Amino acid sequence: MSKSRGPSTVAIKTRDVAAYATARIVITPPGGAERNLVLGVPHVRIGAGSSNDVVLEDAHASRFHCELRKTDEGWLLRDLGSLNGTRVGEVAVKEGLLSSGATLTVGETRIRFLADEGKPEEVVASPRQQFGDVVGRSLRMREVFAVLERIGPTDLTVLVGGETGSGKDVIARAIHASSPRAKKPFVVFDCAAVAPNLIESELFGHVKGAFTGANESRDGAFVRADGGTLFLDEIGELALDLQPKLLRALEQRMVRPVGGGKELPVDVRIIAATHRNLEQAVKESTLRQDLFFRLSVVSVQVPPLRHRRDDLPLLIERILMASGKHVGLAPETMTILERYDWPGNVRELKNVVESAAAVCDGEQIEPKHLMFFKPRRRDPTVEKLPLAGKTLESIERAAIAQTLEHCGGNKTRAARALGISPSTLYEKVKKYSL
pTM for this one? Predict the structure, then answer.
């Protein structure tokens, strides 16, 4: 009987999911049972190799035979250089748009394509106000919980988006804790915190003598996470030249340590997070499209705190419980906190509440205890800055110089604030002699 891999069967996006239409394929293998698959991701690869989204047990199918991609014009079929070719009806095709009802022949397997006849995935808000250590009673957070409750027990790859400080790492840990891998390692790899020349070694490991200073062999993040979950934080900061190596590891579940001659098998679930718009990064060619498709099997967007003020009382209660301080919040204090925009999101709220609780000597946190609370205004938008008549280079140079100064010269932090990779920042610092 032929098999299918998880990522070919479901794709869920928060907020916008009701409009997410899918397609369906009916697979008839040689001598096997017919099966239906909903194409829930915009890129599906078909072939005999185990790393495909749709795996065929067909001796006449190539390892990577063909792929289906959802485009603005429709679903595109592309042959991947297969030995026996891909046929639509009786015509061999290299690339072309599929019409609903078309029948593909891959090896000796027949695949009927039915466009937009798959059942769209719909998200109904969860009745619960907590998922792991993540809490929230607002509608938007309960919609997120509904998605997490469904995909937590699976091995689906998850992309978590949201502003800095919104709790993407807490959500990643909660997903891991809800999965069958909960007792296995949860390994965090921050793509923005590692020097570009060390990322490959940190991800895949290295053998003794692989480079100057490699005095002993060391396992990388993939091997350390074997059997568990690998959390790729700030994936949007990964240098372009390293993205093909990461994609290969995600697809083949094999890694080669730097300087090593043998590939090592790994069994990991991938959760990635970013504060950047990765679809825009693909358009700007700073992120490979195939890597984006591989990471965004399930996309979860964490709403900023200013869009879920209903969650403030519950969040504050949990923060105070965790701090061990048995104090409440005066109504006037809550009013002050509710009026604030929280550009730093839950992380900023946590710092404010904990510092106020630390100096509180009564049963309630009064406004006077917010002595370390310095409300910040959001920076003016670019549209409102006086930029007319200035060259793009001068604007870019000024932005980099000011950000470096604001970050105390820390290039990693500055790159993250600017929304670019550290390697790109290094190049621009050199270009502008900063």
Answer: 0.65
